[in-house]
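Batch 3, record 17
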Amino acid sequence: MKYLPRLPLFPLLTVLFLLGPLVAGLWGTILPAFGHFPAGGHYGPSLEAFRTLFDWPGLSAATRLSLVTGIVSALLSLAITALILAGWTGTRGFRVLERLLSPFLSVPHAAAAFGLTFLIAPSGWIARLFSPWLTGWERPPDLLILNDPWGLSLIAGMVVKEVPFLLLMSIAALGQIDGRRRMALSQSMGYGRIKAWMIAIFPALYARIRLPILVVLTWAMSVVDVAVILGPSTPPTLSVQIVRWMSDPDIGFRLLAAAAALWQLVLVIAGVGLWFLGEHLIARLARRHVQTGRRGRSNTPLRVAGFALGTTVSLSLLLGFLGLIIWSFAGFWSFPDLLPDQFTLRSWMRHRTGSLDALGETALIAGVSVTIGMILTIGCLETEERLGLRLTQRGMWLIYLPLILPQTAFLPGLQTLLLNLGLGMGRLPVILAHLVFVLPYLRLSLEGPWQSWDKRQATVAKALGATPNQVLWRVRLPMLLAPLLTATAVGVAVSVGQYLPTLLAGGGRVETLTTEAVALASGGDRRAIGVFGLMQTAAAMLPFALALALPALVWRNRKGLLNG
Amino acid sequence: MANGLHLDQVRILKDGAPLIEIDTHVAPGSVLTIMGPSGVGKSTLLSAIIGTLPPAFELQGHVRLEGRDLLPLPPEDRCVGILFQDALLFPHLSVGANLAFGLTKGGTRAERRAKIDTALAEVGLEGFADRDPETLSGGQRARVALMRMLLSAPNALLLDEPFSGLDAELRGQVRDLVFRHARARALPVLMVTHDQEDADAAGGEVVRLG
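Prediction for the assembled complex:
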């Protein structure tokens, strides 16, 4: 073949945009952690920052919180997901649940967390529902439910948001492992539904969703926005404390923040290590248990539990969303009334300018980062195709790396590095930081549709005289319009939801819907939270509606493209 | 012997191990049928001639068409048409646009439209230009696929089990249509099939692999 050996430009650029900020950020964390921070007048190396960190009285609590909330959130999310799948896949109830949950996948973490606060707070809907007839409360009780020192509400917030994520990832993976026949075989040998699922399907499924589970684990260990809204405050989780130190007017605190960021990285690595150990132990126990041949016929309690948990998660998201809407339009609303006395546009009018400015900024950042991301991702897929390359398991880990590495470990470093280099923070660094998290999700959502496209279409087009570029532009991309738009919507939702990259790479000056919403958390102005939370949710969800509507409109006369 | 399709001592190796060996000549207007059980690499041979051989395979020997050496050329410059079991009409284009995709470039818009309409009329599909390919029957799709390929003015025609997807009655009709057009244009045809009836209808030489 006489094809010119082309330089794989797109893959190289993608790796650069993906790993560049990561490596730079880690480097920018390591230097000040060891006392080297020229912009602040500090020259290392020294261990002073670590000494200060280990003298900080809140460290053990923050460390414990980070480990416990992370591991418990991941375990609970996985267990609930498995219970729902084991008990209910293939039933009508499951399809209802799936339809209920999928739209909420795109809801930003912060909005979901705010929605939860409107439910479980002492003055929230649940308390109102049972007051005063059952509880006797005439006023909101003085209970520490939100921001509880054990991080329980933080865990609840994470679980509510991660169960839909794991569930939909699992449904996608189940398509590849022929679950139905595995189930039929095991059940025909007399195994109960849940037991059959756990033995015959779960191990294969787990292998396929292991990376998403690690994303949930490390994300839950180091999350900032949800922890600001729902997590404990004195002391807060380690990641929240890092962000507090980073935003201290005394620039010297950046050294302490950098040392804490490295400590956070160590914790996450330890957490992943513990998780791997757990995997190993459970697999061993399970193998021994399978040998007993017990059939596990009594399924009802577990199935009921799975259904109850699945319903609780969906209802929390649904009612939380409803709470955002109602608070944003609420006039006077006294406890324990279930609804406000009147509905008004006052909150929307008051925040019109602020929220529209933030919406514009959000749209601009999402638009640019997703456009760059789509060009790079399609460029990569096409280059790999032409050069006959396939994404290896190692390549998959590379793509997942920015999602698994804790954001608090390298984003503070990115900021200090920008400071050291005398570069300003602002919109451009924010866009590049968003790209780091947008790129993996674009690739993950396009990989399947791209590979399963019938390559004989390309052969036919080439035999008709079409060049590779014509095949791409005139045949492949138009045929893949629907998945391309879905990937774009996923990318926009990811960008809209980013809190820490916007805050740190923007130096606090880039104000998106997410940063504005999270900033409202401490003030407790629920009407403002409703407005910004709702705008944030809409900004993440509307692109999905468009991604569904547009192909149906464009291809309304092309049946072959409407049903998959 | 410059005319037709020459496969000169063609050997295809998969990961270094020989898969197919063939040395033959298909004269213009005649059909060479290649038969054999699935998995012997019949389709691989076709993709080698088209120019879409996957990297795991290696091709030795020469493939010449009308005196030109095909192997150094990219697929789009080889002037080799192919029909598969499925019509593979592009689902995002109308029937007419599918044909326009195949039609060699040049000519005014009206001339091109006229050529497309003529081609449709030739296979009894007058007025189908604006139809969605998905709304066509299997036999209609096969005929559009044939005309799309012929409009690209190929110098040879490859058939990869092209009639297996059609029911018995249609099968004969479409087969006759394809052979008739190929003969009328004096195209060398290489057909891969596992159906003896196809081979008998082709009437040409039969090579058995595997």
